[in-house]
Structure formats: C-alpha cells, structure tokens
Design a protein that fits this description.
By secondary structure, this protein is α/β, with parallel strands linked by helices. The chain contains 19 helices and 15 strands. It has a six-stranded mixed beta sheet, sandwiched between helices. It has a five-stranded mixed beta sheet with strand order 9-15-14-11-12. A two-stranded antiparallel sheet has the order 7-8. It starts with a helix and ends with a strand.
C-alpha cells in the first residue's frame, strides 16, 4: 500500500517537514493522528482552507486519523501570521455562531464518527486557563528571542505587534500538547505561514513530555498570475453555498489559468495521478476539457454530485446554448417593475454583477454589459418585459463569464 506521505508529496502538499524520514516512517509504522486548526474568523471557510482539508482527507482515506480543531479559544487572540495589522476582535456570541458554522462545514469533508476523524474546540481547554499557572508551566519553555525570529512576528514588528497577538504562538503550541495528551496526536499540519507556531508545539511536547512530535506544512498556494489562491476581484471563494453558489464555484475552477490546471487537479481533486498527468498535458482548445473535469470534481467535493451536475449543465446552457439553466444564478424582479422598465444600472447592481452603481456605469461604458447577448447601449438604458423569453426570463452578463438569469415574479 502506498505510504500517504508519498501521496501528499507527489500531489504537491508538502513544503516543509521537521523530519522527513521520521514522518514517513511514522505513517508506515502506525495509525497517525494529525491535526489542523481552523480559527472561526468568519461563518465559512474558503478555498484557501480547502488545501489542508484535502490533505486531511487523503490521510483519512489511507486509514490514519485526522483531527480538526475549531479555534473558539485562539480566535479570541488572533493569529498574526500573514497579517499586516491586528485582526478584528470578535464577541462571544459571534464566535459561538461562527464556530458552529465551521464545524458543520468540516463535517461535509471528513467522517467525524470518533474513529475515522475527530473534531475538537480549543475553547474547551483555553478559556478556563489560570494565567499565572500557564506562564509558569508553559511560558517558561519559550524564548522571546527565538519567537521574534519567526517570520510571522518579524513581519509585524514594523507596524507594531500587540502583546495579545504575541501570546498566540504559546496557545497554538499548547493546543498541540493538549492533543498529544488527549489523543496521542503526533503531527501538526498547516500552511507554511504556520511553520513557527508548529515548531513551537513540537518543541513544547519534547520539553514537557520527553516525546517526539512532528510538523508538516503545505505551500501557500498562489495562482500562476501571482494572486493568492481563492481570492478574486469579488472577494474570497467561500465554501458556503449561500455565499458562493455551486454555479459560481464551478465557474471559479473552470476559468482558472491554463498554467494552473495540472496543479489544481493534483491538489483539489481525488483523481488518480495518472489521470491528472493525462489531463494536465492537454493544450490549446482541449485544455477546456481538463478545466471542466477540474471544475466538476472540485464542485462535487464541496457541494455534492447533484450540484456539480447542475452547475455543469447550467454552464453549458449559459455559454453554448445547451444544457439546463436551473443552476444559473437567478434574480427575481417584480412584474410591474419590468413592465414599466428597470434601469439597467440598478439591475446589474441588484443581480450582483456590479458592486455599485458607479461600477455598473463603468461596465456599460466599457461595453461589458449584455442583455440577451446584446450590449447595453447606454447608461440610461431601461430593460423591459418585452425581452423576456417564453418562460418569463432573460439573461444579463458582465464581461465574458458572469451570467445571471433575470426571472419575472409570477
């Protein structure tokens, strides 16, 4: 059976590891409990978080035991890693709500039956800590000089690192120690910006338990154009269908840069690597087939196979005239408003194709706004009911790829 370390390495998940030989041997020798933490800074995770979830799923499929932490405690402090300023302080009610949302999302990817995968909330042990005891038992093992040498803190020193944030590394390291004691967790995984925090945890376990623990990071993924993975001009690509519809999620993947296709197939699908290599070798017009496979597989993982089929059919309907339109994002307009004529600028804003009236005006002036394949001719143009098809719908488009179906209220 293939060692899962080799699987992760071949597919591109590994950037740094504390002891490659020892970690690989660990996966051969025993069922490994490995954890990743997710602070509930929002009500949804995004595509950037999906990389570590995919890595954990590979572990689960190989018979190891993923352990996810929803950071209901650490989110109260705020991780300075990758930040240029202090994170927004969240209230307890907001944290509880967002923790529940993240927990529900993680359950879609991993099997939390208590045997295959585990989930914990670090608020259960962090919120009741006695500060003096914590400093004496845990804080004494940390060197301030060494902490400041890690990139997460160095990057913040110029603008000012708060004492609150300075404690974050201690808390994350303590999480690793608690999980080692509770579940025998020997491996922490995360993005490469977490390297300092992860190494601090392995050191703490060595100092307090005289035991060996390990760390493994994944690359901070950027697109071929240099943009942060999962970030678009419209914002984050969320995993919550209420924030980013399955159709728009599908479109995010199908519209990726040609240079990213092979890498995304390896990281964000479970297709065998020989199939990844085959699809990744496509060029010219054929690369579209590889992108459609990527989009379908990625959407299936996050939203389910039915939604993936609907998104694919909707894309075919919108772009080539075939398929089923049901998956295309839909905005409903009152019958009376359409019969009287709706201002094109406002309709593009209301339908989510423009963030403001000013943006809609610029879109129309640039010739990027369409109604039923025809350019909107002027910023004062009105869209009327005579443009509706037999089903009481019309299509509006921003640029080449963003469609919304306008439906008249029955």
């Amino acid at each position: 059976m293939t060692n899962v370390y080799d699987t992760l390495q071949t597919r591109g998940f590994i950037k740094q590891v504390t002891d490659e030989k020892a970690v690989r041997h660990l996966f051969d020798r025993e069922q490994v409990t490995a954890y990743v933490g997710y602070d509930p800074t929002a009500e949804s995770l995004h595509v950037g978080n999906l990389l570590s979830i995919m890595a954990l799923k590979h572990l689960e499929e190989a018979g190891h035991r993923p352990l996810t932490i929803v950071g209901g405690g650490t989110v109260m402090v705020g991780d300075p890693s990758g930040r240029t300023e202090l994170r927004q302080m969240l209230g307890a009610d907001t944290i509880d709500k967002q923790t529940a949302c993240i927990r529900g999302q993680l359950q879609r990817y991993l099997d939390f039956d208590g045997k295959k995968s585990l989930i914990e909330n670090n608020a259960d042990w962090l919120l009741d800590l006695n500060y003096i005891e914590f400093l004496r038992e845990i804080g004494r093992h940390f060197s301030v000089n060494r902490m400041l040498s890690f990139e997460a803190y160095k990057a913040r020193m110029e603008k000012g690192l708060s004492f609150l944030e300075f404690n974050y590394q201690l808390l994350q390291a303590y999480d690793f120690l608690v999980l080692y004691r509770m579940h025998g967790c020997r491996l922490q995984m995360g993005g490469d910006d977490q390297w300092g925090n992860i190494v601090a945890g392995t050191d703490l376990i060595r100092r307090t338990e005289s035991a060996e623990a390990f760390g493994l990071t994944s690359p901070l993924v950027t697109t071929a154009s240099g943009a942060k993975m999962g970030k678009t001009a419209e914002g984050a690509v969320w995993l919550d269908a209420n924030r980013v519809s399955p159709y728009d999620y599908y479109q995010f993947w199908v519209n990726c840069d040609d240079r990213d296709v092979k890498r995304w197939l390896a990281l964000y699908t479970f297709l065998p690597m020989d199939e990844v290599e085959r699809l990744g070798a496509f060029e010219g017009e054929k690369i579209r087939d590889a992108k459609q496979t990527l989009a379908f597989e990625a959407t299936k993982i996050t939203h389910g196979e039915d939604e993936a089929h609907k998104a694919r059919e909707a894309a075919l309907a919108a772009f080539s005239g075939g398929g089923d339109m049901d998956g295309v994002p839909t905005h409903t307009v009152a019958r009376g408003a359409l019969e009287a004529g709706v201002e094109a600028i406002q309709l593009f804003v209301d339908a989510g194709l423009a963030g403001s009236r000013g943006e809609a005006k610029r879109l129309i002036k640039a010739g990027g706004a369409y109604v039923n394949k025809e350019k909107v001719p002027a910023i004062d143009h009105a869209i009327t009911a005579d443009l509706l098809d037999d089903e009481g719908c019309l299509m509006i488009r921003a640029g080449k790829k963003k469609y919304v179906r306008i439906q008249m209220e029955s």
